[in-house]
Amino acid sequence: MTIINALKQGAVVLIALFSLSANSADVALIIDDIGYRQTDAAAFQLPSEVTFSILPHTPYSTEFAHRAAQQGREVMLHMPMEALAGNKLGPGALTTELTSPAIQQTLNHALASVPNAVGLNNHMGSRLTQMTRPMTATMEFLRQQQMFFIDSRTTRYSRAETIAQQTGLASARRHVFLDHYQDKRQIRFQFERLIRIAKKHQRAIGIAHPYPVTLEFLSEHLEELQARGIRLLPASELLSRYYRPEIARSAQFAEE
Question: Hey, what's the signal peptide range on this chain (predicted)?
Fold first, then answer.
């Protein structure tokens, strides 16, 4: 190989590396609704960068939280909150009738059932996340616990993320639900949306659930992220890169 050819090959490698870096992006993927069923344990086969959000006071909440910690996997509290449609909330939910001290006491009990949780996202909550007082009490509790908040965005009228920012809390919102429809073609469509948003804005947050079809899809396709210039990060690491409280407002972008 001549020196010129070697230089040409080196230039091609450098261009390829620069192109990959220029197009790189970060994705956080949260699997929530974990804790009710033993079959949820299948999610532990996913890469440890995938964050688990665990429902409090469920049959496997504490066991799965400890197991996740053993894997070095990040755990969040998936907190039930009152919905507009009157959905059944499960134990230990936050509702509009609770006083602010009662909200913080309820959160404290929930956190005790999900040890090692470092953040929180809402389970349902289309009613509660629109309301200032309960959301302020929630965010003040999280700030005291040095936790972060991710708004699941179960309603377009949610004020939760804005109130979290006003409280000085590291916070963000969900951009894509992967498995609103439990169908591989639909999950693939949403997976591609997540990638497009990440490429456009350098980061994106996806939420999925421990459905068998979802876990099968992710086990088959998550490795594609790296090949497409996307890093899979725990939720807290994504927030620390892009959603520090002092820059949170300028970092917002809408779901696409």
Answer: 1-24
